[in-house]
Design brief:
Elements: H1 2-9, H2 18-21, H3 27-37, H4 41-48, H5 50-54, H6 57-79, H7 84-104, H8 108-135, H9 153-167, H10 173-186, H11 190-215, H12 223-227, H13 234-249
Helix pairs in contact: 1-4, 3-8, 4-8, 6-7, 6-11, 7-8, 7-10, 7-11, 8-9, 8-10, 8-13, 9-11, 9-13, 10-11
Length: 253
């Protein structure tokens, strides 16, 4: 019953559909609540109550299966999304699936480690998306973007850091926590490991698809929109730089 509560709170299948819909709110709210604070409470609950779950292996199996399904299904949905915030929303659901599988494997410290590193790079990505939306005067469809690296160099740089971190490339923070999860799961259950390895590949796929659609190629929107594209002010860029540094060094710490 505790775990059913966790499914609702931490957006596990089948109770995850509220999270992408909740992304309609302002981007700083999405960055705080959906990347770092609210959705992670369920993961924290199981980690704190690990002594109970250790006594009931069948519950850990249920958590593992649920986490694998969540990580895979959310990642496959993210592959076909065109709203920049929806991609990041389904990405959050997928990463919460990773944390749940780590809990199922008994790697409680690793799950919390990924929770922390995820809060760095996901908050960075959400605020970076907010900077892009701000620069394009409210446009969120990645099909109407492209070539923004020429006019938004700071946002381009920090979003590149966030994208590499969530894709799990060394030496950024996401590499260390994802690698620890996969190592722990590999020795626990090979089926879970294969599911998470596949979800990891999908993560890199949809994140670099989003990144390339937004910042590379030619601009696909209206000409008057392109003329008014501008970099965010320093009040918005400052937190992005701080989060980019944490995403770079968070794993090494």
């Amino acid at each position: 019953l505790f775990f059913i509560g966790v499914c609702g709170k931490s957006a596990q299948i089948p109770l995850f559909t509220w999270l992408p819909d909740a992304m309609a709110g302002p981007t700083p709210v999405s960055a705080l609540i959906h990347a770092a604070t609210m959705v992670t409470a369920g993961i924290y609950l199981i980690a704190r109550m690990h002594f109970m779950y250790d006594l009931v292996p069948v519950t850990q199996l249920v958590i593992g299966i649920t986490g694998c399904l969540t990580a895979l299904v959310a990642a496959t949905i993210a592959l076909k999304q065109n709203d920049i915030k929806k991609i990041l929303a389904y990405s959050t659901v997928s990463q919460l699936g990773f944390m749940a599988v780590a809990l199922a494997a008994g790697a409680y410290i690793t799950a919390i480690f990924h929770l922390v590193t995820h809060s760095f790079f996901k908050a960075l990505l959400f605020l970076g998306a907010g900077s892009v939306i701000h620069g394009l005067h409210g446009e969120q469809d990645i099909r109407q973007m492209g070539g923004l690296r020429h006019k938004m160099r700071w946002t381009y740089g920090v979003m590149l850091v966030g994208t590499i971190a969530i894709a799990g490339l060394p030496p950024l923070s996401g590499f260390f926590s994802k690698d620890e999860i996969l190592t722990a799961v590999h020795s626990h259950n090979m089926g879970f490991f294969i599911a998470l390895a596949l979800a990891s590949a999908f993560t890199a796929w949809y994140m670099f698809r989003m990144f390339a659609s937004v910042f590379h190629g030619a601009f696909r929107g209206k000409n008057e929109t392109w003329e008014h594209v501008h970099e965010a002010p320093w009040s918005m860029r400052g937190p992005l730089v701080v989060l980019a540094v944490l995403s770079l060094a968070g794993g090494l710490l």
